[in-house]
Amino acid sequence: MLEDSSDRGRTMLAEKLEELEGRVRLAVALVAKLKGEKVVLERQVDELQAVVKVQAEQVGALEAARKKDQEQLVHMQEEREEIRLKIDHLLEEIARIEASVESGA
Q: How far apart are CA 34 and CA 44, in angstroms?
């Protein structure tokens, strides 16, 4: 009877050991899978960081170009105003000359 209970105890221990070994194998497989996924994710992060860097550089270049365009626009508006004032002045002179020619005639 003692041997029977000892055999059953060993059998139970063997079953528990097999169950634990199965769990350990699953855990090891899961860790390996997660390490592989981590490598893939790290590569994707690196790629995305490179894309963000390029886009940030492009945004900087676009902002610089926009600022330059804005400065040119302001300059052109100032030139236009100067030309308009010169034209107004010339038109006034022409009106004066016409008036003096008409009054002299």
A: 15
